[in-house]
Amino acid sequence: MEKKENIVQIIKILKKKSEVSMLGQFSRNTPFYILISTVLSARNKDEMTMKATRKLFAVYKTPKQIAEAPLKKLEPLIKQSGFYKTKAKRIKEISKIIFEKYKGKVPKTMDELVALPGVGRKTAGCVMVYAFDEPAIPVDVHVHRISNRLGWVKTKTPEQTEQALMKLIPKKYWIDVNEILVIHGQTVCTPISPKCSECKIRKYCKRVGVKKSR
Questions:
Q1: Contact 176/182 with Cβ under 8 angstroms?
Q2: Does the predicted TM-score (pTM) go above 0.85?
Q3: For residue 120, what are the contacts with CB-CB under 8 A and spacing of at least 6?
Q4: In whole angstroms, how far apart are CA 185 and each of 52, 86, 128, 145, 179?
Q5: Tens of pLDDT along the chain (214 residues)?
């Protein structure tokens, strides 16, 4: 019980501290935009993903338009996303399914989302949280690292981390976990030499694996 109480306290502290949303640009965009942007974000930096997504949606805005667009038109638009040839095929396939099977509407459930080509649980979770305000815990490198560093879990893969966190964290807090830990991981709890002296949750942290801090 004490461990769960500490986790909830940490979530509340980090939520209060996080004044600017990591994915604030999503608040003005559609579920389809969020889905495609998250697919493009795989193995890429956030700023490059944003540039590629904006270029793409400046030309093609709907599932129908992307599904019908030639790959040679899509590829240059998303080149900054990295692995752009593979991703162009992927977003074209996804768009075709959404247009034909879901009448242009992005599905809302985890099972439906992960059934889309190349959409894993992290991407599906991001869509659920940021597009539909539905509870999920998308686990990326930040969430995986910090959950282990704090001593919440002892896991080797993001998939294991997600399952462990879902058991530990009350469901009403799931929707906050990705955003607050990603922001914390980008600004304070960095992979190498984290800024422990500036950390608002240091007293709760076991600092697992931290060899040098600032």
A1: no
A2: yes
A3: 114
A4: 23, 28, 21, 8, 10
A5: 578 889 999 999 999 876 545 444 445 579 999 999 999 998 888 889 999 999 999 999 999 999 999 999 999 999 999 999 999 999 999 999 999 999 999 999 999 999 999 999 999 999 999 999 999 999 999 999 999 999 999 999 999 999 999 999 999 999 999 999 999 999 999 999 999 999 999 999 999 878 888 8
Are 131 and 34 within 8 A, CB to CB?
yes
| 30 touches 65 (CB < 8 A) | no
- Closest to 175 measured CA to CA, from 142, 132, 141, 137: 137
Domains in the chain, CATH or no CATH each = 2-20+137-204 (1.10.1670.10), 24-132 (1.10.340.30)
How far from 138 is each of 23, 209, 213, CA to CA, in Å? 13, 22, 27
Rounded-to-5 percentages of helix, strand, coil across the chain = 65, 0, 35
CA dist., res. 7 & res. 147, Å (int)? 10
DSSP letter string, 34-72: HHHHHHHTTTS-HHHHHHHHHHHHHH--SHHHHHHS-HH
